[in-house]
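EI: anyone free to look at a 182-residue chain?
SC: sure, send it
EI:
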Amino acid sequence: MKHLAILLCSLFILTSCGKKGKNNPKACNGNTRRDVKLMLDNLANEVDTAAILTTIKALGEIKVSEVDKNTTRLELEKATYTITGSIDKIKRYRDGDYHIRLVDENENYIITEAPNPGCEYAKNSIFHSTFKTNAAFIEANNLQEGDVLTITGVAFVDLYHGYKRKQAKNNIELHPILKIEK
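SC: here you go
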């Protein structure tokens, strides 16, 4: 009986983990404002891809509206920005997306994200080829903490996650990344 209970628990854990696993098309970019993150929403064609050169600190000081999971694209999220910073953390998440957290010399942080081009939703984005280029760049360049990058991406206001983390004070991210330079 004890072995049966262990087996059933193991099967439950394995099947529930599979739903959130790496490259799972149902998990990619979560389900919160996914269309905005992947440039699939009906306002994506209004995004100005002529990037504004700025700093991590300046992006973190922009006044933003609070968002929830149903918020449509904000005016701010129709702008593209270019920033330079050092990699504080780089990680490929279980959904296949690359998160690159940059930091400046004054410990201002921003999260940038390169969507998984294999995600079923990402394949419908007008920037799908860009997602593929960025993933290939990240994989080919063996990016490490401390490397200095210049990243261009679309402004995205993330939800408040309810806990303190190293990010822009106003929850702005660059998501999706449109260009990475080392």
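EI: The chain has one domain: 22-181.
SC: 👍
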